[in-house]
Amino acid sequence: MNKLRRYIGGSVVLLGISLSGCSYLGFGDSITIGAKSFTEQYLLSEMTYFILEDAGYQVRQVENLGSNVLRSALENGQVDVSWEYTGTAIATYLNMEPITDPEEAYETLQEVDRENGLHWMNISNVNNTYALIMNRAQAEELEIQSLSDLAQYVKDNPGEIRMGTDAAFANRADGLPGLQETYEFDFGNGNIEYMDAGLLYEALYNEELEVAMGYETDARIDDYDQIILEDDHTFFAPYNAAVQIRLDVFEDNPEIEQLLQPLADILDSERMRALNYQVDIERQSVAIVAYDFLIEEGLIEEER
User: Fold this and answer.
1) SS3 100
2) Where is the chain membrane-spanning (predicted)?
3) Which of 161, 217, 260, 279 is deepest in the core (most CB within 10 A)?
4) Which stretch of DSSP H or E encloses residue 82?
5) What is the pLDDT of residue 20?
6) CATH superfamily placement of domain 3-127+239-296
7) pTM of this prediction?
């Protein structure tokens, strides 16, 4: 049977809260892929599914998991492999201070998470980190392309720039307070607008703001013709997508790293944002977007 038809026909299991008591996990020689509850994770999971199935593996998926649930499922053996973000693992799971160098963050996880029975591999250039964004037209008009440019403009034109953020980013040391300290400027409390992160892109597009907090791989950046300001002082911690796999599963199946490496090699934030765009904005099927991308890149063979 065609792998895409079989996939769309119901091979994905959607879970909301808990994995406990799931009889479909962990039997036979199948590989269970876990994913969180947003488009980018679905795409990464499904591309992994197609690649492993193309190589002859029996593959199962569980999706729509919270970060902590997915992490527990990996540690408990209910999930075998997933894509995770280096910054999330360092700050949330391991309670470590942020590491700003991507390679150092990755190598730290490879060393530290071994003690938790996990192996990190296949780091990509998909960096779903925080970003400050502007409408392209206004950024060009004001000649702001980087965070240093923004800082200088705010200092030269106090009160002109309205900054949009959610409450979490506004109060995190690795968010707005640290950003302003690093770049030596201050928006001023009267120029900061607080709202849900999901509303910021549209508010910026509607010119209710001049600058907003965003996420680097969010498809709405392209949809609203916005730009990411260059973090030229490397303030934001990296959130590179990489594969984490149970150590025992990796030792039994070391070839999985080689199978997934070509995918990791070609993915970056821009490409990931374009894939997210096809799903979130154009409303295409996640499975079809993932499958077509792999075919176009020659990472799997098309079944006829």
Assistant:
1) coil
2) none
3) 217
4) strand 81-85
5) 39
6) Periplasmic binding protein-like II (3.40.190.10)
7) 0.89
